[in-house]
Amino acid sequence: MSSSFPISLGPFRIEDGAFLAPMAGITNPPFRQLCRELGASLCVTELISCHAVMFVHSRLKNRRKIRGRKLLSLLEKYEGESPYVVQLYGREPDIMADAARVMADSGADIIDLNFGCPARKVVKNGAGCGVALMRDPALLARIASEVVAAVNIPVTAKIRLGYGPGEKNAVPVAQALAQSGVQLVTVHARTRDQGHKGPIDMALLAEVVDAVDIPVVGNGGIQRPEDAAEMLRQTGCARVAVGQGAKGNPWLFRHILSGDAPVPLDERIAICRRHLALYVQWIGEERAAIEMRKHACWYLKGFDGAAAFRKRLGEAVSPDIFHQLLDELVRENPPADPPGAMDEKNNS
Length: 348
Hints:
Layout: E1 7-9, E2 12-14, E3 19-20, H1 29-37, E4 42-43, E5 48-49, H2 50-58, H3 66-74, E6 85-89, H4 93-105, E7 110-115, H5 120-123, H6 137-150, E8 155-162, H7 170-179, E9 184-191, H8 202-211, E10 216-219, H9 225-235, E11 239-242, H10 252-258, H11 265-283, H12 285-299, H13 306-312, H14 319-332, H15 341-347
Parallel strand pairs: 3-4, 3-11, 5-6, 6-7, 7-8, 8-9, 9-10, 10-11
Antiparallel strand pairs: 1-2
């Protein structure tokens, strides 16, 4: 997949390839690093409340509390991560600006503003944060303007088509963001009520692209390289962002760049081991083994005995046991000889 033009955000030139969209509980440092290794051109942290940022940075003792330690772990970046993009959410312009300033001072390279999250606890019945702010474009624009004024690093934003079927206002909202100084906008081409399911509105996404002079990244429904190519073709967006489609399938970024190809079980097992190693580096052995179970369940599908094996992942209480289970899987499913290998053996 080749994009139509390069993207520059401050000193960063964003190469061809899909973005990794932020996902709560998923886009932590290990997963971001893995996706970059497999071809993602930009990755974003999971969304973080502006109040949470101020909580851990207002008092040193807060960082020692359980809540503070958890929040700080979400704000970590992996070694060499560049650019380091932090996504914030909130509805108070002054606190959003303060949090953005704190993160810029702490090493963030780009601030991404979340105006697209559909989660109930974020939108709070349509009067809270995330995509609920699309119902108040004036407040949304004020948040963006104050954050842009508060930091000397690029600011980007994430929106949806609108809050609901009768509230599709992505075009004026994107225009307001561009006028506020936001340098790039990602548009999930669904409304809040659709969540992560249902048809993508390519036509309205194309209208957003035509309405602003900043790069627009299309998001939603990218499960295969063909989906990415079709979104680029139909809408003219600068890039696509992959969210749900990357769960258990981080090599999708590689396929978007160079074409689809079957991923054999031995490679999936190798990726699983790599992901586990990155997790151990990040949060230690016990938590790494527990948190990797869901990823392993997503990775390891489509072979004889897959369902039974996934049930056994509950036994993985340490990396050593995790590797033992994977070793058993390798023994039970040896990699097939590559094409032509039998001919070479017979001729030797």
